[in-house]
Amino acid sequence: MSEAYLDDELLIRRAQGGDRSAFDALISKHSARAYQYAFRLTRNPEEASDVVAEGFVRVFNALHNFKGQSAFTTWLYRIMTNCFLDIRKKEKNRSALSIESALVTNEGDVELQVEDTGASPHELTEKGERERRFEKAVARLPEYQRAMIMMYHAEMMSYEEIAAALDLPIGTVKSRLNRARLTLREMLQKDEELFRI
Amino acid sequence: MNNDKAREYFSAYAEGTLEPGLAQSFEAKLKADGTLKAEYEQFQSTLEELNSLRFEEIEVPFDLNDRISAAIDKSIYDKKRAASPGWTTWLRNLAFGGLAAAAIFGAYFTVKMANGSTSMASVGTIASSSEQIQYSPTDQGIEMKYRPSESHKVTIRGGSDGDESVQVGRNGWVNELTNAQPSAAIFKVQIQGDTPESIVVVPGTQRSKVVTGQGSIVDLAKAVANRYHVPVILKVANPETEVSWNFGNGDAPSEAAKSLSGLAFSADMRETGVLSISDN
């Protein structure tokens, strides 16, 4: 039987004992899912690969600290999210990103990053117009809100799992997710009004 | 219930988790406020679009796992290098300036005198192997540092630029062998008057999953470099000796040693992260 089919717990125990092939098996088992999550956050294949590679380096270096109190995947999501946030933070420090607008929420989320797709409204095809504007709106959400949105709606994680991954109370996860959805609705509504002009 | 409060309940109401009493108040609010009702309907549409995210097909790069492994290997090397003695930096300086060289030699001899010993164990391998090239992994390949007690010619064969020779004096010399190819590359390094020559195997950009094979000691060294992404230095009288291997779950030195058991060779991992195979 391939090692990739072995239980996470067993692979982790072996990897903690220095078995590199067990760690490779963990990579094989979880890298695709980690990449898909990272891609959803970044919308950039190269950056997504960087997030995943850096994330697994952190997993490798911290594996001896993993006590199995949460599922390995939950821990992995936490690390991937932190990598994504750290990489974005570094980028922000390195170069000035264009800021289209600022949105101050009750919890102090202030920045909206604009990821310009380069396509003007006229260039958008009628068929994909709504989807592309939706994708663009999601990309404009603050990173932390975007991570939560992706965990819940794309990765189909429960509120409890998100709370465990982000080390937040469930109530906070629920209220922040609601706020992210409200923000998104508002952005889409404004986009739609602009598009109609 | 004001509008802001009602918005706080949008998600819970849409998911059906709002308490019955609050749900009733919420419904009454929507009924009384057409604008808020329209807002809630847009919110529901947004939720539907969000739920469609899960159906997006995302193609995973074919080399993702290799990239992850390479990043982990680099992290291991960086840690090892960070933990290695500081003399490597001295030697790099040594190769590039007379003043720096004088200061470094000063530091070197100061340490020696302070120890009052000729074994020089406290300064790592520099004294015991001063007539040998020191190897340590880099991001792109392997770094060679050499500081002989008297001038020697060093010849490197196997590089893309053909054979190269350099006369190395007491000021020392630093060189890097790189490999941008997917699989391991072989270089032959000969110090004038020193036999056998060293065969330096530099891992490529990709990590191999192949665990079994048969061939010469050089082939084994390549297989180890490919599988474990570690540089291997081979210094053996007969590199054509036949050997077979079947790597298990151990690390590079233990699997190489296992493959060489019963033969007159030994394999050991140096502090710098380079695997060395030599005659017993």
Keywords:
heterodimer, A: 197 residues, mainly alpha, Rna Polymerase Sigma Factor, Chain: A, Arc Repressor Mutant, subunit A, two-stranded antiparallel ribbon, B: 280 residues, alpha+beta, 3 domains, seven-stranded mixed beta sheet, three-stranded antiparallel beta sheet, 9 helices, 12 strands, 22% strand, elongated
In short:
The complex is a heterodimer of chains A (197) and B (280). Chain A is built from eight helices and two strands.
Outline the structure in words.
Chain A is 66% helix and 4% strand. With 197 residues, chain A is mainly α. Chain A has two domains: 3-93, RNA polymerase sigma factor, region 2, helix turn helix motif (Rna Polymerase Sigma Factor, Chain: A, Orthogonal Bundle), CATH 1.10.1740; 124-195, Winged helix-like DNA-binding domain superfamily/Winged helix DNA-binding domain (Arc Repressor Mutant, subunit A). A two-stranded antiparallel ribbon of chain A has the order 1-2. In chain A, strand 1 and strand 2 (111-113) form a beta hairpin. In chain A, helix 5 packs across helix 8. The radius of gyration of chain A is 19 Å and the shape is elongated. In chain A, 37% of the residues are buried. In chain B, the strands form three sheets. Chain B has a seven-stranded mixed beta sheet. In chain B, strands 1-2-5 form a three-stranded antiparallel beta sheet. Chain B starts with a helix and ends with a strand. The model of chain B is unreliable at 85-130 (pLDDT under 50). The chains are: A mainly alpha (197), B alpha+beta (280). The A-B interface holds A 14, 18-24, 27-28, 31-32, 35-36, 39-40, 45, 49, 52-54, 56-57, 60-61, 134, 138, 149-150, 153-156, 174-175, 177-178, 181-182, 184-185, 188-189 and B 7-8, 10-12, 39, 42-43, 46-47, 49-51, 53-54, 56, 58, 60-61, 64-65, 67-72, 75, 228, 249, 251.
Radius of gyration of chain B: 31 Å
Order of helices and strands of chain B: HHHHHHHEEEEEEEEHEEHEE
N-to-C SSE series of chain A?
HHHHEEHHHH
Helix-and-strand structural type of chain A: mainly alpha
How many domains, in number, for the residues of chain B? 3
As for the number of domains of chain A, it is: 2
Oligomeric composition of the shown chains: heterodimer
CATH class category of the largest domain in chain A: Mainly Alpha
- Average pLDDT of chain B, rounded to a whole number, is 78
Give the largest interface. A-B, 43 and 31 residues
Number of strands of chain B: 12
Mean pLDDT of chain A comes to 81
| Helix proportion range of chain B | 40-55%
Alpha carbon gap, first and last residue of chain A: 61 Å
Spatial sequence of strands, sheet with the most strands of chain B:
4-3-6-7-9-12-11
